[in-house]
Design goal:
Number of strands: 0
Strand content: under 5%
Radius of gyration: 26 Å
Helix content: over 70%
Largest sheet: none
Structural class: mainly alpha
């Protein structure tokens, strides 16, 4: 579970909801079915038009990644590459075959298998870069989906407010009731702006952050495996790979 995502959401909702209550408002007055239906349904519908059903069906997966994404341990990966490099220098590349089962990352495992199979260095780099490119393309779909939803949501809120005002002004003659109805009409704008800035856009940015972390990890693996294949000294491999990590996070700085 990503506590930063949960904490940020709770703080934002608590601050906004708390201030509303302190001003004398009632939280129940915000949860009106018609404005919620217009904003949520309209936003999801408009966003779905811009993408494919395959992407829409993956929305639960994107949300899972945003709220409980995987952490990448760069230092551990570097040490694993260094150990494999040391073994390759002692026993030869074929000696790495016994280590494949202990490599959890499918990308890392595939890279080592290609090295064992004797893949030429240029071809190996092309294969791994293609794998990374496909990962980037998959991630981009989720990021773009929530980014577009964040763009449509405020517009749907305004549309809901306009529809509410049209209904109110054409059907209400009592001034006191009209004021309450106008206030209710603006609930749609509240939902539109709120969902965009408290959910859709933050989730998009969180997915982008996850994407950047994973791509950096994959690139580290790719470079490390290429240097391993070339027979580079394990000490030099560690030194080069530590460049992927901020100095304060390096555990084995030489």
């Amino acid at each position: 579970m990503d506590f930063a995502t949960i904490l940020g959401l709770l703080v934002a909702l608590g601050a906004i909801g708390g201030s509303f209550v302190l001003e004398g408002g009632h939280v129940s007055s915000i949860f009106l079915m018609a404005p919620m239906l217009i904003v949520i349904g309209g936003t999801l519908g408009a966003t779905t038009i811009t993408t494919s059903m395959e992407t829409v069906l993956k929305v639960p997966t994107f949300l899972r990644l945003a709220f409980s994404g995987k952490s990448y341990h760069f230092n551990d990966t570097i040490e694993q590459i260094v150990r494999l490099s040391e073994k390759a220098r002692r026993e030869g590349i074929l000696g790495l075959e016994t280590n494949l089962a202990r490599i959890n990352s499918p990308f890392f495992r595939k890279a080592i298998q290609l090295v064992i199979d004797g893949t030429e260095v240029t071809a190996l780099r092309e294969i791994l870069e293609t794998e990374i490119a496909y990962v980037e393309e998959r991630h981009k779909k989720g990021i773009t989906f929530f980014q577009k939803a964040g763009g449509f949501s405020p517009t749907m809120g305004i549309l809901g407010t306009v529809l509410g005002l049209i209904h109110t002004l054409s059907n209400t003659s009592d001034a006191s009731r009209m004021a309450a109805a106008i206030a209710a009409a603006f609930i749609a704008t509240l939902w539109g702006v709120g969902l965009a800035n408290l959910f859709f856009l933050p989730v998009s940015d969180k997915l982008r952050m996850r994407h950047e972390e994973e791509i950096a990890h994959l690139e580290l693996i790719m470079e490390g495996v290429l240097w391993l294949q070339s027979g580079e000294n394990p000490r030099n491999i560690r030194t080069r790979l530590l460049a992927f990590i901020a100095p304060r996070h390096r555990k084995h700085e030489l």
